[in-house]
Amino acid sequence: MSGSPTVKRRRLSQELRRLRLLAGLNVTEAARLLEWDASKVTRMERGQWKLPSVHDIRLMLDLYRVTDESRREVLVALAREARQRGWWEKYQDVFRSSLPDFEAGASAIRTWEIVLIPGLLQTEQYAQAVWQAGQVLDQELIERHVTARLTRQQILMRENPPSLLALIDEAALRKQIGGPAVMREQIGKLIDMAARPNITIQIVPDTAGAHPALEGAFVILDFPEDPSLVYTVTTTDSLWLEKPEEYQRYSFIFSHVMTSALSPDESVRCMAVLRKLLEG
């Protein structure tokens, strides 16, 4: 099973909805028989819960006539595991979304960045320069943002890590965030990370011209047992997309942009050239 409580809650929600439908009940009927408010069943099926109650899950399994003991225990165990708290719970003042939680459960991550280096690949100094540029956070909170971002990156080093395919616009490499020394270190880290077997980095050169992903960055997350997700952000909000047509559209955009990217080997050579230019 994945290490993400949010992924487990999402899986449990989907399974509870499937079982209700198999039992031939609508939400109102299920809630009446359980003596609950209908909104409680709806929230559970939408994954809008933090700590699933094992007692409630057993009641629902009884109502939905799930009698197979092994099946019941799998779902009860899933509910228990979904109650666990990840390291990111300590940084609720930092994270705008459940991205680190979903990353922890993903088997494959595809990310497109047009202005910045992807967060999973940033150096400490680069990340600090990014947060300082906002000019709205005090230094203590900036340090918390940086620490949280570096902790996120540990999923790439764990046993059985997710695969990461990062498409990065050349403009992000040329933008001297933090100055030449910071960018030189940052590009060096990208070259080092590209050598890892689970990480592929491809640069979309300036010569690629216009393409469908010019409007902004996004992340596509694939899971071993669950539907994929697309994550995108604006200046003030973050957005999760999970409809099949939305996933297909972003997958198509990602694939289209990848046809304009340099190969992994060419990308490493490109980054080496850009780093060399910063040595002056």
TrEMBL record:
Q: What InterPro entries does the database record attribute to this sequence?
A: Cro/C1-type_HTH, DUF5753, Lambda_DNA-bd_dom_sf
Among SUPFAM superfamilies, the record links this protein to: lambda repressor-like DNA-binding domains
Record's superkingdom? Bacteria
Q: Which organism is it from?
A: Sphaerisporangium rhizosphaerae
Protein name per Swiss-Prot or TrEMBL: Helix-turn-helix domain-containing protein
**Where does the HTH cro/C1-type domain lie?**
16-70
